[in-house]
């Protein structure tokens, strides 16, 4: 009796991790940090400073200097100067450096974990057992890719100087996640840590020298939003990789528009955690702890929307509440706590405010403890009695707050899960493999976990869709974000592009025997007249009229997108079927060979061999993508857990294609074929010249079993039409060949729904060149990779 009573009354005592070593390191550095540029630590005279605090007790840990524009420029210059020799050193040399970094981090893992916890407020258990080990794994894993780069990534080269801007929720892990793949592939980087958590990055800078990272390959600049803005917009930066809020992601998309930069954005989320009635509810409860109370819920892919099948709702909520009672809060350095402090006073206020104001729209809040602003402690919270339009269900809270809703049927679960503007991650909970494997691909997200949540590994791609951004980090798919195809014979030669005829109506036209021909748009499988009723002449190379084509407007674009939306069944057709349709298209085109060669000669003013070459290459290109349709087939990633992670390329949705002027037949097919082979639907806008050529293809399309709405074609003013297309909320991606003004315009407008853009100078490639005109580069742009984690065993 006595013993059991004592056991009941037992309280945990604190098991504090020592901060002695971390504090000594801060002291050694005078508790002040400047910038790490060109392998040196740089301090400026009279630089503005930011105080670095421990959010658990508001103590000041150190100060950082803010890098001004000149300092950012120094860092970018140092990166640019080091990059070529770093790449030239070869994969093996880079592998050794990454390996050394991994070893050194391992050696200092304890002090780095403590520093991270002091600076961020996360439980030491998490920084020690999760963040830092995973960061180490990123360096090991990518050391391997550096070693294999020459053989496995042939034909690709580094993009050059990469700006990397990271947030405060996983400071060291995000640093590793960004730096490892970038430098492995031979880029040099400038990284800006978040202003509230810069300490472990400064520790890392010191390790770089020891690991033999050449001067200038890794540069770290400190500062807040202004420093980040200057860095991302710097003209000598070739790529920006950003993780953080959707608002800042948008600002970066805007400020870099038209700069020909590669961009990846890993933004916010409101991820669904979907529980079916056949799930193991006790595992579900632990899954919820991992999904929303891990890292105080300050996780971009936190499972913050719980959807429970109605028949088990009450039971599960009861279990969750019981589990909440046993979650422990305490000082973050206590090894036995579950929940620590939010990162800053600002974040504490933000979470408190969002919850308070959200509850005005209804909902019931359940918490086991009170928030404590002196420690920035916000307790684990659940909110019930809300519907899908409730602000707390739609907005990212970025704190330990879970909203709960229920559903009845599987289709309703999928629909509710997808009812968000975000698309970062989701998890499915069911013991029924049929159900789990059916629901996982139906969830619109970059990462889906089955019977687990918040699992990560360097071997698996991570990243989102919709307003969660674009691009992947981790896995082989992540490497391409830091590479570009080796520049071969890309520039288009004269040939078919060699004249200046344009379709503006004020040109003096010579007469042609075919002047009466009027070619309509192709929308939803039908030939359609322009909404405005106007036609414009499509000119031959010599200024004579080849045919009249419709002059499209916003309404025509809307109709074309609508038709494409309705044709979404194309994505779920088998790859075999899509291949068959493409082969049939090629076959039907072949029958019309003589006619197309003649048309190309007349229109583009090329000689017969050249026109024949373009025609034959067009047929061959359709064959290539018919072949690829069922061969671009993803991977099974081998992460260190009992299970496999399926990396599946998925179609993006509706892609807007804005074509170049030259080689009008081949260019059209080079864009349309890979996009539709992967299951996308397209809206095609031809180049300003030779707009008639693509419309001549319509009759071939009509007889080739291509479902209506998969290919839609609107002619007219390329600038105007592509602006409408880029501004359309249902278009998920834009591929654009234009002048720099047009590209800038497309990239800026695409910010609205955060479209993936792929913009080029009009004549950047010769479509006859196999390396420039076709291949996996196009297929990668036509897909995004969804990683589905499937654990197995008990
Ligand atoms: P933030 O997006 O402002 O900060 C992320 C990084 O971007 C920091 O390094 C910051 O200095 C930098 N930055 C800020 N303005 C910039 C600009 N104009 N150009 C370039 N870089 C810039 O996030 P913040 O303000 O710290 O947190 C606000 C909210 O954002 C959070 O409550 C959360 O909802 C969300 N967030 C999401 C993250 C994610 O991983 N998805 C991470 C951090 C925040
Ligand atoms: Mg801090």
Walk me through what this model shows.
This protein is of the alpha/beta class and 794 residues long. Helix content is 42%, strand content 19%. It is built from 29 helices and 33 strands. The strands form 8 sheets. It has a 10-stranded mixed beta sheet, with helices on both faces. The chain has a 6-stranded mixed beta sheet with strand order 9-8-7-10-11-19, sandwiched between helices. A hairpin with a 5-residue loop joins strand 26 (635-637) and strand 27. The protein is globular and about 100 Å long. The protein starts with a helix and ends with a strand. The relative contact order is 0.09. Bound molecules: 1,4-dihydronicotinamide adenine dinucleotide and magnesium ion (MG). Residues 165-169, 192, 194-195, 224-225, 228-229, 232, 243-245, 248, 251-252, 267-268, 300, 350, 396, 398 line the site of 1,4-dihydronicotinamide adenine dinucleotide.
Short descriptors:
794 residues, alpha/beta, ten-stranded mixed beta sheet, six-stranded mixed beta sheet, 33 strands, 42% helix, binds 1,4-dihydronicotinamide adenine dinucleotide, binds magnesium ion
Give the helix level as a range of percent.
Answer: 40-55%
Going across the biggest sheet, name each strand in turn: 14-15-16-13-12-17-18-33-27-26
Query: Unreliable runs, pLDDT <50, ≥5 residues?
Result: 494-511
Largest sheet: 10 strands, mixed
Number of strands: 33
Shape: globular
Report Rg: 28 Å
Q: What gap, in angstroms, lies between the N and C termini?
A: 36 Å
Q: How many individual helices?
A: 29
* Bound heterogens, unique: 1,4-dihydronicotinamide adenine dinucleotide, magnesium ion
> Whole-number average pLDDT?
95
Q: Which structural class best describes the helix and strand composition?
A: alpha/beta
Strand percent estimate: 15-25%
